[in-house]
């Protein structure tokens, strides 16, 4: 069983008090700043909260409505799903979402570190999601009453559930949902808001050192950027300050699967480690300790990337087991989720290389194996094992640990 101790949380002796003004605790004649993570993700300046991530909450809720609407066989259209992706023509049931100037599409594959100089790559990822939305309507909806078979879209039983798959056995709604974990949540958190290009942009360091807040706000720009990364994981929590208490239940994206990984005894402790790193990194910003801040960003990149890798292997292995048992409905469901997590691997971030744990080219090679010929109808346990082994080899876990 894996020993899941924190990577590099700072050991300090002076506690950071988050409920008071955001002044660092300085000791040793003013030469050292010692910071520990506060008990909750709660920070104030002059009695007013400095924590804000409403844009992230909005996009999580938009994504949840979008994925749900992909199963609305009676009313969803290519246009309505596309409008939800882009937030055009008031597409949401939640009027607050319609009133927002945010959208899912604008932040998909849009991180500064990975896509600032790669407009074509960003466009390719956006087009991937738009194509899956259209495919759901054009391929799956018309075949909802057809029994699926190799080369034929339709429905297939999975225990007491019915799955609706394309001609290769894939559920497009699962691919979109799990693909957004990487292309939206992981990419924005790890490769945008936790990156020095964003945190230290322009006069952010000088402003943060001098307590210069964003006009009309209570927070500095650097504080806000860190909070936005936090929001892509915890933004839908009812009590964000204590979000780790409900991790795994607050949305169906990154939050859910951090909770699922936490529930595996091989990785127990990962949720607390992630929450502690967010708290300590935020406290370090308040204290002006940017080396400590960046150490916490590395922990977050490592652990949240691992969540994607672990769940990719988990679903590939669960799908393999179901194929061997002859349960193709369960296999196709698991492997559709696995496809989405495999797709998300290209957005992960290895702190040692500042590149994805697996490149876009490697991810595309895996996808080619999963979609060859009749896709999931033809995929073999040997292929699923080979892909699982290749993924696990890039991380600090085994196929056995992740796949159980």
Question: Could you characterize what this model shows?
Answer:
This protein has 16 helices and 6 strands. It is mostly helical. The protein has a two-stranded antiparallel ribbon with strand order 1-2. The chain has a two-stranded antiparallel sheet with strand order 3-4. A two-stranded antiparallel sheet has the order 5-6. Helix 6 packs parallel to helix 13 (328-344), helix 10 (254-262) crosses helix 12 (290-324) and helix 12 packs antiparallel against helix 15 (381-392). The model is unreliable at 1-30 (pLDDT under 50).
Question: What is the element layout, followed by pairings?
Answer:
Layout: E1 26-27, E2 32-33, E3 44-45, E4 48-49, H1 54-69, H2 78-86, H3 95-98, H4 112-115, H5 119-140, E5 154-158, E6 161-165, H6 172-193, H7 196-199, H8 204-209, H9 221-234, H10 254-262, H11 270-287, H12 290-324, H13 328-344, H14 360-371, H15 381-392, H16 399-403
Antiparallel strand pairs: 1-2, 3-4, 5-6
Helix pairs in contact: 1-6, 1-9, 2-5, 5-6, 6-9, 6-12, 6-13, 9-11, 10-12, 11-12, 12-13, 12-15
């Amino acid at each position: 069983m894996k020993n899941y101790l924190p990577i590099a949380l700072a050991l300090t002796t002076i506690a950071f008090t988050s409920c008071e003004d955001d002044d660092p605790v300085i000791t040793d004649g003013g030469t050292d700043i010692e910071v520990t993570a506060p008990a909750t993700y709660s920070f104030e300046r002059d009695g007013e909260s400095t924590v804000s991530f409403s844009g992230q909450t909005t996009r999580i809720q938009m994504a949840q409505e979008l994925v749900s609407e992909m199963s609305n066989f009676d009313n969803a259209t290519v246009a309505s799903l596309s409008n939800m992706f882009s937030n055009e023509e008031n597409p949401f049931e939640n009027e607050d979402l319609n009133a927002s100037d945010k959208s899912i599409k604008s932040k998909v594959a849009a991180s500064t570190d990975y896509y600032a100089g790669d407009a074509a790559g960003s466009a390719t990822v956006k087009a991937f999601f738009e194509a899956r939305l259209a495919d759901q309507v054009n391929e799956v909806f018309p075949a909802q009453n057809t029994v699926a078979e190799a080369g034929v879209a339709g429905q297939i039983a999975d225990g007491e559930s019915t799955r609706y798959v394309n001609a290769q056995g894939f559920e497009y709604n699962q691919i979109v949902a799990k693909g957004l974990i990487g292309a939206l949540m992981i990419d924005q958190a790890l490769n945008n808001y936790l990156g020095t290009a964003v945190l230290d942009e322009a006069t952010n360091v000088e402003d943060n050192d001098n307590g210069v807040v964003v006009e009309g706000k209570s927070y500095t720009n650097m504080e806000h950027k860190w909070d936005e990364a936090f929001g892509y994981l915890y933004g839908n929590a009812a009590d964000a300050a204590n979000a780790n208490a409900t991790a795994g239940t607050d949305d169906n994206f990154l939050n859910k699967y951090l909770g699922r990984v936490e529930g595996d005894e091989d990785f127990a402790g990962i949720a607390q480690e992630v929450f502690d790193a967010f708290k300590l990194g935020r406290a370090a910003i308040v204290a002006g300790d940017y080396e400590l801040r960046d150490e916490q960003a590395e922990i977050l990149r490592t652990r949240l990337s691992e969540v994607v890798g672990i769940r990719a292997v988990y679903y590939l292995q669960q799908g393999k087991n179901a194929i061997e048992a002859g349960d193709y409905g369960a296999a196709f469901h698991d492997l559709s989720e696995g496809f989405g997590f495999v797709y998300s691997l290209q957005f992960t971030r290895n702190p040692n290389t500042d590149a994805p744990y697996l490149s876009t080219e490697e991810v595309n090679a895996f996808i080619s194996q999963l979609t060859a010929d009749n896709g999931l109808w033809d995929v073999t346990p040997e292929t699923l094992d080979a892909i699982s082994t290749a993924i696990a080899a890039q991380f600090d876990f085994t196929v056995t640990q992740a796949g159980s």
